[in-house]
Amino acid sequence: MNFPGLKSLEEIPRIWKRAYLLLCFWYAANYAVGTFIEWKLENPNTYIFWNALQQFEALCILIIAIFFYTNWLFRFNVYVQIACHTAGAMLHFLVMGTLSYYLEDYVEGYIGWDFWKAHIVGLLKWEGLHFHDQYIITIGVYYVIRYFQGVQHQEQEKSELALKNREMQISLLKSQINPHFLFNTLNSINTLIGSSKEQARKVITQLSDIFRYALDSHGDQMVKLIHELDFIDNYIRIQQVRFGDRLKFVKQVDFSCLSVEIPPMILQPLVENSVKYGIAPKDDGGTIILTVKRFNNMIFFEVKDDGLGSNAKKVMDGSSSGVGMKNTDERLKSIFGPGSGLRIHSNEWGYSVSFFIPFEEPAVEALNSKAM
């Protein structure tokens, strides 16, 4: 945003160049119209056009100086800027006023301090205030440019921050398949190789599908619910190899919701949370129930277990890094709004996590329902 020490024309922001050309065009029109009216009504001598051209050329040079001066002042606080711009406006008036004196009086033989002073004092009347206006308008244009550049910079920072946040979420998303799960799965595979090579091959295939799904997941890319459920099925089957009959899994899914698009791996932390903190510590295990239902224009998701619930010793989170549930909650709110955050309920009979996402009925289905 700051442009100190500009060394060449290429380093000057393009918007400065456009603003400079517009200001020059504006003042060229002003000088042309004003001089023509003066020539027509007050002074029929053609030299006033030459004088106006010289003043216009000087003003174009001063506009450049004012831009760089204002840019330099921008690093200071507002009080310093006001004081320095007051001095700048006076200096601009004196420079343009002196040029006016030279073109109108000096060349006519009115030479000396008293004549210069009288000319400057005469410019302090209403007709000479346009010199102040030139300075004020120029710095006003600069500050307008600076304001919009600031807004643009803030939007750019927000976009970069959002991108970094998505990248972080993707990284966290992929790390949610935690090392303990991988270690336990490899141990299970090692055990199965000696007893059931076919079962070991199935687990290896399921594990590879899980990691392929995780690696292919992108924060902005939505997936259909049916694919997310396949991923959850693979995850549960691998866990069931470890826990056996102690882990049961029930899906209660409305078939009309299978094509609904959701963020990838949004359910995995919730299911892992139930396995890790609800079912695993319980001697006789338990059941995890995944429910997906449609209520008008909303889709309801719930992962519920009959594990330890509020009797669990650890905080239920669903990831080894301690960010699984939090990350899921933030992703839901970021994509679907604050109302889609996680709702957690825990008691001595179990634990449940639920959330809602909005559902827009496809246009074809909407037309068919209206026709019926």
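The record above closes out task 2.4. Task 2.5 opens with a second protein, given below.
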Amino acid sequence: MFKKTIKFLGLRLSIIIFVIILLVLAIVLGLMVGYGFLGGGNPSNIFNHDLWNEVMTKLSPGK
């Protein structure tokens, strides 16, 4: 019984980790497609810290 429980929990945990990895990949690919191909920028720029500072500055409320 204990082995079945451990196997079941291990399977569920591996499915959750797999879904999280797929979610992160979907977000990164979506950002690359949106910024690079639809926005006309370089797709690898989504990993640039300065780009995200600029985006956060534009989204922050005015002072």
